[in-house]
Write a structure and sequence with these properties.
The complex is a heterodimer of chains A (445) and B (214). Chain A is α+β, with helices and mostly antiparallel strands. Chain A is built from 18 helices and nine strands. In chain A, strands 1-2-3-9 form a four-stranded antiparallel β-sheet. Among the domains of chain B are: 9-38, no CATH class; 47-54 and 101-195, no CATH class. Classes of the chains: A alpha+beta (445), B alpha+beta (214).
Chain lengths: 445, 214
Amino acid sequence: MSDTRIVDFWVAGTEEPEFQPTDEGMQEIGPEDSGRRLDEQYGRVVDDDYVFDDEVPDEERMILNMGPQHPSTHGVLRLQVELEGEIIRRSKPIIGYLHTGMEKTGEQLSFMQGPTNVTRMDYLSPLHNELAYSLAVERLLDIEVPPRAQAIRVLMTELNRISSHLVALATNGMDIGAISMMIYGFRDREMILEFFEKTTGLRMNHNYIRPGGVAVDLHPGWKDDIDRILKEIPKKVEDYHNLLTNNPIWQARTVGVGVITAEEAVGYSITGPPLRAAGVEWDIRKVFPYSGIEQYEFDVVTGDNGDVFDRYRVRIDEIVESLKIVEQVTDSMPKGDYRVDDNKVTPPPRQRIDESMEALIHHFKIYTEGFRVPAGETYVAVESPRGELGCYIVSDGGARPYRMHVRAPSFYNLQGLPIAMADSIVADTVATIASMDPVMGDVDR
Amino acid sequence: MGIVKDLLKGLAVTGRTMIGTITGRELVTRPYPHVKREKPQRFHGRHVLNRYPDGMEKCIGCELCAGACPAECIYVRGKENDIDNPVSPGERFGYVYEINMLRCIFCGLCVEACPTEAITMTHLFEMSTTNREDGIYTKDELLMSPDGKVPHMFPDDPLADLGELDTADGWVRATAPGGRAAYQGVRMWAGTPGVGDWSPEPSQEERDRRSGDG
């Protein structure tokens, strides 16, 4: 038995103050928050600029909320759809459920730490995020990265495009009911993720492409791994064609569904596969080449109708085009440095720390304060698997960006959903969302 | 007839994969906790604090890792060494060293920042705990013992692979050639790795060679 007793003693003057309610945290409902605005927020009224024939009586229309916890909305997308029987008349994507303030976080991190943050935005193509950020910082710094770093960047981002498209195909298949496609897509993506893991040590969120070059060189024997990818993926693509492209059920579910015409796509700033599926030949890699991608031969894949099937075809053909680039980069990989030889931007080699005091000072300086970037602003875009991924950086001359904004392709592509889904049936909703391939981490940032 | 043929083509793909999976030829999954996959050399896992072969701690308490950490999960306090009984070569040593593994994003910047290769990463990645306090690793958990062994958080777990802490790595980043091709393939200055023997990575010519190229 224990002798421990709990004694409740009281000290004068330490009484808990009596609870006094304050108005802290209270919100006044202003006139702008009531009435119609409240109705909109609760979904009682859907208001957008979409024109429709208002002949059906109100009682035959129903407003349905899909998401944000719906498994087929690729994350936490909420769709407000106005139904007339089985037909979607209007729809409204509502976003913000995954907003984590990453652009604001980017202002707290130095330019050296920045890639760890941006790589988490579009988590299916992390290397493209890092590339856009690094290119923007490098343009402000006015430095030229060595050819090997450029080639590694192209190699890694094109592999990333393949892996991202494989996920897009997989989820597109899963949403329509082709579960095999989901398993195959994720299975084949594993090959590329293994390559990434061997090179960067991580499967996603690599922190690999940095301002000034890349973090580490490719792993020994990387050409063998690339050869395996180049040998296996075309076989798998052939399987996908057999499984889906020529499959009459797949065609019945996708052809003519969720059409976005070229005019609409351009008008809504839609980029990437949804734009090219509409027949517009627009690819940042061709129009504003980056990282020396203009040296490699590849075609811009376009579709004709801009429907779900065309977007699927564009993705599957872009895998083949990316493989072409990967093969050319592998064969022509230049030797040499893979980071700029500028101790103000990149840390010196480890051996130099022991030999030179100046190298040690640079090392300490870069890992504590970071490097300073001249004041100015810039915007650099790369072609991510989802479209134009741009990074806009304002620097005030310090070691951290004054403002960082990311032009997220998913965000713009998502705005095309209402026109793609107008007057389609409910069963096609999921197919259309999947074909836009939104990544909610990219949308909300 | 064409429709049936196209459908059969697709079914042939699934059928082939099914047979391949049953026979094990195309099997890509493994019974995970019992069979673990081989992890690549550069894998980013749990951190470890290294020692020199003579038992001295490598950490000098410079707090560069804490400064480089984008997640701000490292807390370091340095202290002056006792001259008669030093903990690390040099003037200072890491008196307090804590990593909040719940915040860590495993980016590896601490490994790159460390000037003495004191902190590296191992291949251990199973760190789930049943309470949040266990997620904060102090020096007791991180520092390897003088005989080169790293304490495992759950040594009694039958499914834990204790070897993961010994096959540790992170040396690629810890001994970075800094992007200079001339420094690749050169053994960097310490040459006295703690966990996991580190041999220098091959030079660029060797690295870019295919295995078939003689």
